[in-house]
Amino acid sequence: xxxxxxxxxxxxxxxxxxxxxxxxxxxxxxxxxxxxxxxxxxxxxxxxxxxxxxxxxxxxxxxxxxxxxxxxxxxxxxxxxxxxxxxxxxxxxxxxxxxxxxxxxxxxxxxxxxxxxxxxxxxxxxxxxxxxxxxxxxxxxxxxxxxxxxxxxxxxxxxxxxxxxxxxxxxxxxxxxxxxxxxxxxxxxxxxxxxxxxxxxxxxxxxxxxxxxxxxxxxxxxxxxxxxxxxxxxxxxxxxxxxxxxxxxxxxxxxxxxxxxxxxxxxxxxxxxxxxxxxxxxxxxxxxxxxxxxxxxxxxxxxxxxxxxxxxxxxxxxxxxxxxxxxxxxxxxxxxxxxxxxxxxxxxxxxxxxxxxxxxxxxxxxxxxxxxxxx
Length: 375
Prior knowledge:
Blueprint: E1 9-14, H1 18-29, E2 34-38, E3 53-54, H2 64-88, E4 99-103, H3 106-122, E5 130-133, H4 134-140, E6 150-154, E7 158-159, H5 162-175, E8 179-182, E9 186-191, E10 196-200, E11 203-212, H6 218-221, E12 232-241, E13 251-252, E14 255-257, E15 263-265, H7 280-293, E16 302-312, E17 319-322, E18 329-333, H8 341-354, H9 359-362
Parallel strand pairs: 1-2, 1-11, 2-8, 4-13, 11-18
Antiparallel strand pairs: 3-7, 4-6, 5-6, 9-10, 10-11, 12-15, 12-16, 14-15, 17-18
């Protein structure tokens, strides 16, 4: 149900991007009374710049718990996609052919292989990868360029359409009874005697439990409830080409071909604050690397480019926290919204309903990890 006023509900999920929508869907599926407050497309919506990678390889280099969380979510994606498509009729374009991380120098390939081996040795959820020289990459990716040194390949990686995913999550949540509040930015959250009061652009709303999943907006909202959201914007710039004949049937770290035939490429990471614009030098370098990897792109026309802001913690690992002062308040700050969608709609929603995070399971994701005093 879509409303134009501020409703009250047992659960208020603040943030209508992929993370918040997945949580709202999971809560609604479990029968909870949920309201999803979405600032709308005027927000710095990370889904606009998302490749849609269901990405496993390389995740959790500094956190085995994150590696396990990612691997399990990726394993759950096929069932999750089937369920969501059956509920909404929206095609998510999920595929899991595996993906290549393309390396341009032997040194880069060696460093990448060592990192992957280290992650595998510490992870509890099983995974696998291969280290491929240039000849083997060319055998599997015939269009690869001569200046590529090799790649790592992980069969667990996949892709989905992130905008279709966002649409499907909101549609499914609404079908299951969630109240969707577009243009409903939440400005302030206060604890009251029975729950929480939200000051929104649609008026005052009340709830018994609140989940902050507002991306960069969590920075201002979290401290109001004794929570912490140490996130910052990291800009990425993306180029999209005209449709071409299929040549790339796998994912890669910075280029993918959609089902429709267009190619997306981009891998920049820029610390520029709340600026989601584009710059010619970055776009030029992005295009150069894409053509180096796949020379057939040299004469393909670019039809669109844009910038978008990632939600990034200091170590790239998610933050999941229950407020120490308001037990029914939670914060979720995540970069990998697409990959972790099955977890957010499943196990995380169940934990939110229970009213308590498993302190052992979530200790690795507490923002307290950033508060260790220097010796």
